[in-house]
Amino acid sequence: MKNFLFIGIIILLLSACVSKKSIIRKDFDNQLSSSFYNNQFTGILVIDADTKDTIYNHNSHKYFIPASNTKIFTLFTAVTILPEKIPALKYINTNDTLYFEGTGDPSFLHPFIKDSSALNFLRNQNNVVYAAGNFEDEKYGPGWAWDDYQWYYSPEKSILPIHGNVIMAYKTNAIQVSPTYFKDSVLELTNKRNRNEFSNVFYYSPESRDTLETPFITSTLTTRSILENILKTKVGIITSMPLGKKQTLYSVPSDSLYKRMMHESDNFIAEQLLLISSSQLNDTLNSKAVRTHILENDLSDLKQEPRWVDGSGLSRYNLFTPQNMVAVLDKLHSQISQDRLFSIFPAGGKSGTLKNRFAGEEHPYIFAKSGSLSNNYCLSGYLVTKSGKKLIFSFMNNHFREPVSEERLRLEQMLQILRDKY
Fold first, then answer.
1. What is the structure's pLDDT at 173?
2. Transmembrane region positions (predicted)?
3. Do 96 and 239 touch, CB atoms closer than 8 A?
């Protein structure tokens, strides 16, 4: 009798689960069959985080431009390779001279992170020599828009970033500039550009009262000049480190960079995290090498091979499937505690890029990364249902001509269906 009762309960639970999935499938099918989706390309995959059951699947094997959903892969790479604190510098101290090289750490005097670990360390040395030969990358990613050079979201990648590789200019009685090395390079003139394309000459409109954040052109000599201006001492330059065992100086907790990258969709930090990861693997900074390493090792089981060309998602050359996204989100979910994982991702209605959308009724129910380029909007992450179930999802929408606000509204309706009915 007990066996029959147990079997009956199992059948009822399975029937309820099938019924829930059928209701969701019907609602989603009706939504996607509307005329709104006729001229765009949409892919969706939703799975139960615990049972791995597929709740909904639509074009999940097809490739999409992910935009900033690419940062989910960058996060996985960093979490897999980097220690709890970010390696800031590698150095050898010999004959009263400190030889050091950059690791790509973006936190050095970053305007929002404001870490001074490397600065304080270098200030306490008698003689410093900068080894600038381990950067084996390009300053921009493949397919980045050429005219983005002047905008805050597109700083150059570099071996030893300082101040996020941007200048900050704002007006009090006079124009204030940080780093101060560039104070004479900012002209109070109206210009259609914030900076000359090929030189570090910047423009600040006399009528402006905003803080202007503009990338500067990086080079070994510029890095040395900024360092000398900050340290108030001469800095030597060599192409490679002397022979000897390198030591590592660490800076900020790694999670502080992960949260900044995911909450603010910080492109610069995303790119630099790949470079730091590369420096941990083989002492050189090459983002392609670390992407290849991750795909061939930790992500060799992906059902479709992504085309992954940068860390931030600025490039339209990136191609990922919803199955790719859900697979990596699932790996993160199994490797990281839920509290830590959900703190790294923006929470709907509460934090980061989702602060003003996808709000829950009492508590956040969405913890996800959005990604947008013109005519593209993606959202991938985790959803907690009213029944306490955890879902992993990826919604990828490409090539639409409707307002992105309408795209998000329809997506939110589907997310609420998942929250309320599963």
1. 86
2. none
3. no
Q: Are 308 and 292 in contact (CB under 8 A)?
A: no
Within 10 A of 6 (CB to CB), how many other CB atoms are there?
A: 10
116 closest CA partner among 126, 105, 127, 125: 105
SS3 state of residue 96: coil
Model confidence pLDDT, tens digit, residues 281-317: 998 999 999 999 999 999 999 999 999 999 999 999 9
d(CA 31, CA 41): 14
* Residue 312 to residue 210: CA distance in whole angstroms: 26
Q: Which CATH superfamily is domain 22-77+280-421 in?
A: DD-peptidase/beta-lactamase superfamily (3.40.710.10)
3-state SS assignment for residue 132: coil
Residues 6+ apart with CB under 8 A from 166: 111, 152, 155, 213, 214, 215, 216, 268
- Structure tokens that stand for 279 in this block: 């420096």
Which helix (H) or strand (E) segment holds residue 381: the answer is strand 376-384
Residue type, 129: V
Burial 345-361 (b: 16+ CB within 10 A, else e): bbbbbbbbbbeebbbbe
The pLDDT, as a whole number, for residue 14 is 47
Q: What is the pTM of this model?
A: 0.94
Phi-psi region of 79 (alpha: psi -120 to 50; beta: other; left: phi over 0): alpha
Find out whether 13 and 19 touch, Cβ atoms under 8 Å.
Answer: no
Distance CA 73, CA 409 (A): 26
Helices marked H in 283-321 — which ranges?
287-296
CA distance 83 to 267: 21
| β partners of residue 94 | 97
- Judged by DSSP in three states, 128 sits in strand
Query: Other CB atoms closer than 10 Å to residue 18's CB: what's the count?
Result: 10
Q: One-letter amino acid identity for 298?
A: D
Domain ranges of the chain: 22-77+280-421, 78-279
How far from 16 is each of 3, 22, 165, 228, CA to CA, in Å? Answer: 20, 10, 55, 69
Strands 175-178 and 366-373: unpaired
Q: What is the pLDDT of residues 161-203, one digit of tens each?
A: 999 999 999 998 899 999 999 999 999 999 999 999 999 999 9
CA dihedral 337, 341, 343, 345 (to 10 degrees): -170
